[in-house]
Design goal:
With 269 residues, the protein is α+β, with helices and mostly antiparallel strands. It has a single domain, classed as Clavaminate synthase-like (Double-stranded beta-helix), CATH 3.60.130. Helices cover 21% and strands 28% of the residues. It has a seven-stranded mixed sheet with strand order 1-2-3-13-5-15-4, covered by helices on one side. The chain binds 2-oxoglutaric acid. It holds the Pfam family TauD. Belongs to the TfdA dioxygenase family. One of its GO terms (molecular function) is metal ion binding. InterPro entries: AtsK-like, TauD-like_sf, TauD/TfdA-like.
């Protein structure tokens, strides 16, 4: 296994691995690499939907999305499909997956099926570094703050989802202890983070904007340009991500599986 770190503060490419054939040693090495690099790119992976789920299961429990229908023959896999006539894409704003759930996923595997001839990159941000990059004046205000995450901004505009999809709310610590690395990380999710406990709306909006600006600064991000067969595995507990929507008139199809996580931990237990 050849791990090549990106030149950014997160991200690495792993060559020499056939994910459909990994054994427990491989899983251990990949998990260690994920803890270190946060986002792992595995080029040229040939996997059926069932094999994608089987790979994900080597890293934790897997279940269907819950609010969006999975593939008919494999409900744990979400097909993220943007067709030439679609204007909006999925995951276009910075977010942490399903932060509005009591236990958001620990991570996700995204496998490229059809990619546009240009555009359609995905970006991830390093939330450990974001926390460290905050000015002291913000840091002292947020260490023990709890954030309110709502699903409305994700599902509000989708008429086809069940009403409960729009009503999910979770309160999580804004500064969390990563359960595996034990490092402090910011846990923020762009538009899904709608407020902070004990803070009025105006102050919360200001703080949210400041956090997002620091957390998504280009110095703290990694950008991947997809090729068919690329599989990216990210740690959802210490990153945010967004899919760029700059390929109007083209098709982009990805398969995603999420791995179950645990409730985010506050830094002082
Ligand atoms: O399609 C992508 O690049 C990312 C989609 C996304 O945001 C997600 O799967 O949560």
């Amino acid at each position: 296994m050849n791990i090549k770190p990106s030149e950014r503060s997160l991200g690495a490419t792993i060559e020499g691995v056939t994910l459909s054939e990994i054994d427990l040693d491989g899983v251990r090495l990949i998990r260690a690499a994920l803890m270190k690099h946060l986002v792992l790119v595995f080029p040229r992976q040939i996997l059926t939907s069932q094999q994608l789920v089987a790979v994900a299961r080597m890293f934790g429990a897997v279940k269907p999305h819950g609010f969006l229908a999975g593939m008919e023959n494999c409900p744990e896999v979400l097909a993220i499909n943007k067709r030439p006539g679609d204007a909006q894409n999925f995951g276009g704003a910075w977010h942490t997956d399903n932060s509005y759930l009591p236990a958001p996923p620990m991570g996700a595997l995204l496998h490229a099926q059809v990619v546009p001839s240009f555009g359609g990159d995905t970006e991830w941000s390093n939330q450990y570094e974001a926390l460290m990059a905050l000015p002291e004046s913000i840091r002292i205000r947020i260490d023990h703050l709890w954030a309110r995450h709502e699903s409305k901004s994700v599902f509000g505009a989708l008429p086809s989802v069940l009403p409960e999809a729009r009503q999910q709310v979770a309160i999580h610590p804004l500064v969390c202890l990563h359960p595996e690395t034990r490092r402090a990380t910011l846990f923020h999710s762009g538009a899904c983070t709608v407020g902070f406990e004990g803070m009025d709306d105006a102050e919360a909006t200001c703080l949210g904007n400041d956090l997002l600006a620091v957390a998504t600064h280009p110095d703290l991000t990694f950008r991947h340009s997809w090729r068919p067969g690329d599989l990216v595995f990210w740690d959802n507990r210490c990153t945010m991500h967004r899919a760029l929507n700059d390929y109007l008139g083209q098709t982009r199809l990805m398969h995603r599986v999420s791995i179950c996580g645990t409730p985010p931990l506050p830094i002082s237990l």
